[in-house]
Amino acid sequence: MVAAARVVGMGHALPAAFSQQAVWDGFFAEHYKDVRLAEQLFVNSGVRTRHTVANPVDEDLSRWGTGARMERYLAEALPLGKDAVAGALADAGLAAADVGLFAVASCTGYVTPGVDIRLARDLGMSDRVRRLSVGHMGCYAALPGIGTVADFTVARDRPSVLLCLELTSLHIQPPTVDVDQVVAHALFADAAAAVVLEPGAADRPGYEVVDVVAHTDVSTAEHMTWDVTDLGFRMGLSPRVPAVLARHVRGVVEDLLHGHGLTVADVDGWAVHPGGRRILEVVQRKLALPEDALADSYGVLRDHGNCSSATVLLVLERMRAAGAVDPGRHLVALAFGPGLTLYATLLRAV
After folding, report:
1. Are residues 141 and 231 in the same domain?
2. What whole-number distance in Å separates Cα of residue 135 and Cα of residue 105?
3. Are residues 226 and 313 in the same domain?
4. CATH code at 51?
5. Spatial CB neighbours of 270, under 8 Å, sequence gap ≥ 6
6. What's the angle, vertex CA 139, arms to CA 133 and CA 142, rounded to 5?
7. Triad 108, 109, 114: Cα angle to 5°
8. For the purposes of burial, counting CB atoms within 10 Å of the CB of 331, is it exposed (0-12), middle (13-18) or buried (19 or more)?
9. C-beta separation of 204 from 198 below 8 A
10. Are residues 331 and 302 in the same domain?
11. At residue 342, what are phi and psi to the nearest 5 degrees?
12. For every one of its 350 residues, what pLDDT tens digit does the chain have, with 9 covering 90 and above?
């Protein structure tokens, strides 16, 4: 039997922090003065602190063209990505030259040569390292990313790295009365998070990648969109998203678990992408989870906001630091995004 790949290193990097109240008072109160519910949406978002490379209180990018935003993306992404990957490699006790595959997931910026090439160079990876860039999968990209690099690690018996790097603050939009824009700007923030995977035969402690499943409800594809415009990327976010998630999340999780002889009650940890408070409430209710089961997801939402694909990795890292799952026990990571798509990953602490 081939040993499964396991997550043996984690790292993240964050830009400067600001308080939710300060950014409302200093910018968004005026920006959304014509939206009656705007302040309530900010206050009730569940977010208290966010990290951004572009704080709108200090600089208003809402009228910038997409080209200027992409130039800024490159300048800001490289140091954050380098710090996150270097931290994950150090945590794993590996050198950059050991990496066989370097994958980068980001839906918030595009440059060529990509940040994968530039970071591989700056970190000292081999000029023969395989690279993979994943774009426009959105908030769930970390989980198919983990599945893909895990498959490489098992097949090639080489370490791999996944970096999720999102700079949503570069895509602030001009003033509008569209409530979905208010919700997006109340939730989203910036972060870089990385994981290192090694073959299971290396016998290091970590999280063994047991299985990954996906479900996409194409009938609701327009409920969540991320459109490239002349003024950056624009989020479309329907209030019906939680209802769609409610229809599917239990079935997806049960399909994942049943293939391994497990039930929801056998899972000791839940790393759920905190797309917003309503998302977490739906997951908790539909899976009938204990009251504190999603404490780490709520904590990441409170302290960092929704950082798109990087967010679930921040939750997973927080769970590991807390020793939330004992060796031999299982945890499930869940993330959701455009499609509407649900991804679920089964991990086992080793």
Report:
1. no
2. 6
3. yes
4. 3.40.47.10
5. 283, 287, 289, 293, 294, 297, 331, 332, 334
6. 50
7. 140
8. buried
9. yes
10. yes
11. -115, 130
12. 467 999 999 999 999 999 999 999 999 999 999 999 999 999 999 999 999 999 999 999 999 999 999 999 999 999 999 999 999 999 999 999 999 999 999 999 999 999 999 999 999 999 999 999 999 899 999 999 999 999 999 999 999 999 999 999 999 999 999 999 999 999 999 999 999 999 986 678 899 999 999 999 999 988 999 999 999 999 998 888 999 999 999 999 999 999 999 999 999 999 999 999 999 999 999 999 998 999 999 999 999 999 999 999 999 999 999 998 999 999 999 999 998 999 999 999 99
Q: Which of 202, 217, 243 is the last residue of a domain?
A: 202
Strands 6-13 and 160-167, bridge-based pairing? unpaired
Parallel, antiparallel, or unpaired: how do β-strands 207-216 and 341-349 relate? antiparallel
- Report the DSSP pairing between strands 130-134 and 101-105: parallel
Distance (Å, rounded) from C-alpha 119 to C-alpha 288?
Answer: 42
Angle between helices 311-321 and 295-304 (to 10 degrees): 120
As given in the structure block, the two tokens for residue 105 are: 């997931």
The residue type of 273 is H
How far lies 68's CA from each of 7, 48, 117, 280, in Å?
36, 29, 21, 35
In the block, residue with structure tokens 């293939």: 259
Distance from C-alpha of 138 to C-alpha of 249, rounded to nearest angstrom: 18
- Amino acid identity of residue 297, one-letter, is S
Looking at the structure, do residues 217 and 185 belong to the same domain, yes or no? Answer: no
Q: Which residues are catalytic?
A: 139
Instruction: Give the range of the structural domain holding residue 229, as residue numbers without chain letter.
Output: 207-349
- 341-349, strands of its sheet edge to edge: 130-134, 101-105, 160-167, 190-198, 6-13, 207-216, 341-349, 330-337, 267-272
**Counted domains in the chain:** 2
Identify the sign of the CA torsion 126, 320, 14, 24: positive
The answer on 248 and 122 residing in a single domain is no
Count CB atoms within 10 A of the CB of residue 161: 30
Tokens standing for residue 186: 């109340």
Q: Which of 313, 336, 321 is nearest to 14 (CA)?
A: 313
